[in-house]
Write a structure and sequence with these properties.
single chain, 2 helices, alpha/beta, about 140 residues, five-stranded mixed beta sheet
């Protein structure tokens, strides 16, 4: 089992996402990636956010545990501490590899996220609802396939 930790960052009513082109598919995903040995889920989310977007963030709280194909994906609401969006230097930004596709950090208006292929879809729905009212008191558990 591989755990992937992700971030939910909203600034000025826009959501930080990674636009992907991979395997003939075009979609948007929340910044994040695999949890390394000895790393907490929160530490992995923070590291991946910096690698993929160039932003240093702090975790506010866990919003969801997504179970995707048997793998856990915790997602955290984060707040920007410093950095410049779009300056990520993670390995995914190295030489293009068709197996892994493209990674492009984008800001998307929160109100538009269900108009685009944002994955995981159930998490996008939670983000839209929560941004309009309030975040859930306890992490939401989502099973997505």
């Amino acid at each position: 089992m591989r755990i992937r930790a992700g971030c939910i960052l909203i600034e000025n009513d826009k959501l930080a996402l990674i636009e992907r082109h991979r395997g003939g598919r075009h979609y948007f995903t929340f910044p994040g990636g695999g949890v390394d040995d000895g790393e907490s889920h929160e530490q992995a989310a923070i590291r991946e956010m910096e690698e993929e977007t160039g932003l240093q963030v702090k975790v506010i709280r866990k919003i969801a545990d997504v179970h995707f194909n048997g793998n856990l994906q915790p997602y955290f609401l984060v707040e920007k501490v410093s950095g410049e969006y779009g300056t990520g230097i993670g390995e995914e930004f190295g030489e293009y590899d068709p197996m892994f596709g493209t990674y492009h950090p984008v800001w998307m208006p929160v109100a538009d996220i269900l108009d685009h292929p944002v994955v995981p879809r159930p998490l996008a729905e939670v983000v839209l609802r929560s941004a309009q009212s309030s975040w859930p008191n306890e992490p939401v558990v989502i099973f997505d396939s």
